[in-house]
Amino acid sequence: MKFAEHEPVLPVNFEPVSNGEYLPEVPDPLRLEMERRAHELTADSAARLGVSRRTFLRSLSAMAATLWTIDSVTANALGIPAGCWYPMTKEACIDESAATGLFADVDFVFDVQGHLLEYELDPSTAGDWFWGRQFPQARCEDEDDPRACFTMNHFLEEVFVRSDTTMVALSGLPILPEGSPLPAELMEETRRVVAALSGDERVLVNAQALPQVTEIDALLEEMDRTVAENEIHGWKTFTHFPVGMPWRLDDRDPDLPQVAGPFLQKLVELGTPTLFVHKGLSDGARAGSPEDIGPAAMAHPDVRFAVYHSGFEVAHREGQYAPEPARGVDRLVKSLADAGVGPGSNVYAEIGSTWWHLMRRPDEAAHVLGKLLLAVGEDNLLWGTDSIFYGSPQSQIDAFRAFEIPAAWQERFGYPALTAEVKRKVLGRNAARLYDVTPVTSSAVFGKDEIEEARRSHPVPNLTWGPKTNQAVRQFREHHQGWP
User: Fold this and answer.
1) Are 134 and 365 in contact (CB under 8 A)?
2) What span, in angstroms and rounded, lies between the C-alpha atoms of 292 and 263?
3) Three-class SS state of 275
4) Is 338 left (phi over 0), alpha (psi -120 to 50) or beta?
């Protein structure tokens, strides 16, 4: 059985979905109404143009029609005029040229949160593979087994061929190294394959480090080896994984491992002082809160803290900043404010998976983007998508290009405007500056055949990523079931 969708799908996915780090959001009546009306509008537009609905749904006009529906349904529910967040027009819903002018021009997209999975279709992973079949990407075309939809080949095609993305940073997952489908070797292999294909460095690697799971001296030695043997541009960590082993970036809790100080100092010594830390999407785990970001940033000004997800929690509804009690993104805003960390500092906010949810909740999206722009500044907001889990990131890119923070909300809440220049910074320029790399702006020109040839010919050996022993299989399953 193929896992591709047989019916034409909308440019924006309305299904309940999880990236594995949170419970799927059950569609409410508002979301169901958005989906119903978007199907009706795109079907009507296709009929008026005399093209198949499948053909029309691949157009920018179909995206305009879907965003127009999201905006109008949300505005109607709030009792305000439509056109607040996605200022689409009826003409744009049927005329490609009219639609084009409503999406900000973007010359460079750098995704700082990319993931892929290589199971080699190991039988031991068949029943309990990485976080199940909830991802949209699990229904990719051309594959009989959904696990095959997350391989390097599919990742490169979805990100570089089917979207405007020209650079991406790979990061590890909340899975311990033993039996992981995304080991450091796979990230390095992906970087080398793309470099061989494109002739440039458009894939960067964030090495993963969990300072609380081993003796700190052993970790620091491993970090030395990692940097010596690989092209590392940054680091990725979790403060609430593994389960039962929390730690804090500010070492403020004496009952937790006091590892932040030597770990963060090591980043500076290695010349790779950029740390991406997962905060939010933590299923209520206290250590997953960004409350330690502000104090850590003040204590370690030479470290650049990039906050994956910005503290966002799917079940929490975002609104105007409310510090007491702080929830969701407000936890990050409060932590920075309480510590005296202002915009343009050494803290960066990232919106991977956050934007995936909020682009269907545009009123909340305006609050989140507005709050983050005020807290970290327009130069410190980063683009990420959690690709490949949601398939091609193009719909997320297009929605962001079209999105606006309403003028009335700018006046009422003090939010800055999300101008075309700010969007260009967020979608790529900020990340290039953070990593201190020259933007790669040319589109990828490789396809499946070229990817396969590069994998066969480049020097990284063929490795099987899945567990190889009974003990490894047991550990693999324990790690997966233990999250979060």
Assistant:
1) no
2) 15
3) strand
4) alpha
Pairing of strands 274-278, 203-208: unpaired
456-463 contact pairs (CB < 8 A, 24+): 457/196, 458/189, 458/192, 458/193, 458/196, 459/192, 460/185, 460/188, 460/189, 460/192, 463/185, 463/186, 463/189
Residue 292 and residue 239 in contact, taking contact as beta carbons nearer than 8 Å: yes
Taking the C-alpha atoms of residue 443 and residue 449, their distance in angstroms, rounded to an integer, is 17
DSSP state letter for 387: B
pLDDT 10s digits, 221-242: 999 999 999 999 999 999 999 9
> Which of these, 443, 401, 442, 438, lies nearest to 422 by C-alpha position?
401
Residues linked to residue 204 through DSSP beta bridges, in sequence order: 169
Q: Is 80 helix (H, G, I), strand (E, B) or coil?
A: coil
| Cα–Cα distance measured from residue 444 to residue 320, given in angstroms and rounded to the nearest whole number | 40
pLDDT at 469: 41
Between CA 108 and CA 437 the distance in angstroms is 13
Determine the pLDDT at residue 143.
73
Nearest CA to 398 out of 151, 80, 104 is that of: 104
Work out the end-to-end distance of the chain between its first and last CA atoms, rounded to an integer number of angstroms.
31
* Strand, helix or coil for residue 326: coil
Count the alpha carbons within 13 Å of 159 in the hemisphere toward its beta carbon: 31
CB 466 within 8 Å of CB 125 = yes
Angle at 136 between CA 130 and CA 142, to 5 degrees: 90
- Using CA atoms in the order 473, 475, 476, 482, what is the torsion angle rounded to 10 degrees? 140
C-alpha dihedral, 74 to 78 to 82 to 85, nearest 10°: -60
Q: Give residue for tokens 């937790």.
A: 256
The pLDDT, as a whole number, for residue 460 is: 38
Q: Are 322 and 339 in contact (CB under 8 A)?
A: no
The residue length of the chain stands at: 484
Residue that the structure tokens 């980043």 belong to: 267
Look-up of token digits 């198949």: 52
- pTM of the complete model: 0.90
Residue type, 406: P
Dihedral Cα 30, 381, 104, 321, nearest 10 deg:
40
**CB burial of residue 461 (10 Å; 0-12, 13-18, 19+):** exposed
Residues of the chain with pLDDT under 70: 1-7, 18-21, 120-135, 138-139, 141-142, 144, 178-179, 447-448, 451-484
Three-state secondary-structure class, residue 126: coil
Q: How many CB atoms lie within 10 A of CB 131?
A: 19
* Unique residue bearing structure tokens 């490949």: 388
Q: pLDDT (tens digit, 9 = 90+) per residue, 35-75?
A: 999 999 999 999 999 999 999 999 999 999 999 999 999 99
Report in angstroms the alpha-carbon separations of 22 from 7, 198, 288, 480: 28, 36, 12, 14
